[in-house]
Amino acid sequence: MGFLTPLFLVGLSALAIPVLIHLIQRERKRVVEFPSLMFVRRIPYQSVRRRRIRHWALLMLRAAAVALIVLAFARPFFRRDAAVIAATGGAREVVILLDQSASMGYGDHWQKARDAARAVVSGLGRDDKATLVLFSRNAEENMRATSDRSRLAAAINTAKVGSGATRYGPALKLAESILSRSPVKRREAVLISDFQKTGWSGSEDAKFPDGMTLTTASVASPSTANLSVPSVSFGRAAFSGQERVTVTAGLSNKGDEPLKDIPVVLTVDGHDIETARAAVAPHASASVAFAPFTLVGANVRGSIHAGSDPLPADNAFHFVLSPSEPVSIVIVDGLDRSDASLFLAKALAIGTRPVFQIDVTSASRVSPPTFDKRSVVVLNDTPFPPGSGGALKRFVERGGGVLVVAGDHTTLPTGSTSEADLFPGRLAGSIDRTSAHSGSLGFLDYSHPVFEVFKAPRSGDFSAAHVFRYRALEAGPNDRVLARFDDGAVAAVEKKAGLGRVIVWTSTLDDTSTDIAVKPVFLPLVHQLVRYLAHYEAATSWFTVGQVLDLTARARTRAARIVVSPSGERTTQAGMGEGTEGLLELNDQGIYEIRGTGASGGRPEAIISLRWIRARS
After folding, report:
1. Same CATH topology for 227-321 and 543-611?
2. Where are the strands (E) in 56-195, listed by range?
3. pLDDT (0 to 100) of residue 610
């Protein structure tokens, strides 16, 4: 027999109270009248016989009452082995919740956790069944309910620590679901973890109904020594026509002892190029900057390794770098003025992320090679370039973007030709607002990527721009209207063709028909239009565990791709347009490679670096 709260047994000392009550000296209750007490001295009356216990039955009842109260508070229970329990209480349904989050890799936590799981399995009775659930940020049934101890032990032996963060909610909800389906009366969940505080937010709403019990087994250790690399930043600069990168690593010491002379190693493409030394105070942070190095190509792998401690997973930070690629733009002018594209070209020249590479030509000089190696073509208030319809259509279908700035001189193909189908709606005559009140932008589609950055308050006032002249346009049923003027006329409309996009802006982007070019919103508007048409996305040097990546957005072709995980596992992802096979869930810390199915050797078409979000507490 044992006690849940044995300290209450100290209360057994209260058994002396009934004994004292029975031995206490009490005065006689009968009063004897006496004529005068002034000559009488009060003397205590003692009797040896009165101090003897005379009511033994009453004493025993009182002592038993005190003892029962003390035992009730001590909460006694009887220990019985599995065989006795199975014989007296029936079969059990047990769910073993084994934490495999990254923090379990600290010291001997994982070994202790598996030992605890094996102990639960060895304690199962003949008719008992157990389910093994492995969890980190999500929970999964690794071994369904079985009474085969050897299968359960094998599943425990093959389980490995993952890279995910700790989340207790999904595991407890899965355990409750499994136990609620069991027909047996004795149902129990055993939670084995190091019990990170960050794993429980308080909003999980995980509750076990009556008849289910939860037993916990902690494998945490009192040691908190840990050094991690939580962040890495990059500074880029051009030098002699090449891009040089300066890497700065952030360090964090979560332990109680200072760390001195810690080696921090920068590795690039498998070569250690520099080792720095760092010191970090207890519960503090520090940073280390490395000398610049030159990016020699795309998808350069890099990593930071700092010191060594019981949790090696967060001592490394992996990343991938590629040189910044400019967005190539050709602006086609139809006017003889030398400053026809002045505002547009100046606004794009200011861009640094990305850098816009701009060429200006006239409509008469446009030929099919004009669109080669371009990301965006801007038809700036110009008649449609003769003989370029087919080349422009192929350019868009392959992923290019076209921005039509529709001024008074703009013409587009008409009729039922394939070139005419490339552009949204039907362009009509000009609307003059100079005689009355000038127009303004009255509606913007803030859900569209072009205008999404202007959604927040005080992020851009388009109503301050005056529009004096614009072209009428009737949008088609498959076109998306992005903006309208205050009278309801279309200001911007988009149409998608193949992999590319076409946007028509129904006024000019200079100072001839509007003053938007001198308003604060002009520069970010032009940048957003070109970024969107060019499918530009800022290069991501790393992702975090648990993210889902859309591989179709990174693919160069529609063909299938091979994904090589950090552990070396190879999986084939279907090509674009084939369901959700293009989605890749990132679960392992390290470097993922994406290759074409026919590629062999050389650099892969994409490399993804995955880091673990530190969640120890």
Report:
1. yes
2. 76-77, 92-99, 129-135, 139-146, 186-193
3. 62
Cα torsion at 229, 231, 237, 239 (round to 10°)?
20
* Spans of the chain below 70 pLDDT: 1, 3-4, 18, 22-32, 34-40, 43-54, 78-89, 335-338, 552-559, 574-582, 597-617
Q: What is the domain partition of the chain in residue ranges? A: 2-77, 82-218, 227-321, 327-533, 543-611
DSSP structure string for 303-344: EEEE---S-GGGGEEEEEE----PEEEEEEE-SS-TTTTHHH
Burial class (CB in 10 A: 0-12, 13-18, 19+), 205: exposed
Kindly give, in sequence order, each residue whose CB lies less than 8 Å from that of residue 174, ignoring residues fewer than 6 positions away. 95, 133, 135, 139, 141
Burial tier of 549 (Cβ tally within 10 Å: 0-12, 13-18, 19+): buried
CATH topology assigned to domain 227-321: Immunoglobulin-like (2.60.40)
At residue 307, what are phi and psi to the nearest 5 degrees? 55, -160
Cα(246)–Cα(292) distance, integer angstroms:
4
Distance CA 494, CA 475 (A): 9
- Nearest 5°: the CA angle 438, 443, 447 is 150
- As a CATH number, domain 327-533 is 3.40.50.880
Q: What token pair was written down for 144?
A: 């369904």
* Cα–Cα nearest to 92, from 171, 9, 178: 178
298 burial (CB, 10 Å; 0-12 / 13-18 / 19+) is middle
User: Residue 426 has which token pair?
Assistant: 């039907």
Sign, CA torsion 443/447/450/451? positive
The domain at 543-611 falls in which architecture? Sandwich (2.60)
Residue 121 has which token pair?
A: 């399995």
β-pairing, 327-333 vs 356-362, is parallel
- Residue 242 CA to residue 53 CA, distance in Å, equals 104
| pLDDT for the residue 537 | 83
Cβ–Cβ < 8 Å for 273, 301 = no
pTM for the structure as a whole: 0.66
> Between β-strands 500-505 and 242-253, what pairing exists: parallel, antiparallel or unpaired?
unpaired
- Encode pLDDT of 116-151 as tens digits: 999 999 999 888 999 999 999 899 999 999 999 999
Asked if 501 and 532 touch (Cβ cutoff 8 Å), the reply is yes
Amino acid at 387: G
Burial 224-254 (b: 16+ CB within 10 A, else e): bbbbbbebbeeeeeeeeeebebebebbbbbb
Hey, what are 108's tokens?
Answer: 């001997």
Residue given tokens 């349904």 in the structure block = 93
Tokens of 469: 């002249």
Contact 276, 290 (CB under 8 A): yes
Residue 223 has which token pair? 């040691």
Task: Please give the DSSP secondary-structure letter assigned to residue 514.
Answer: B
CATH 3.40.50.10540 fits 82-218, yes or no: no
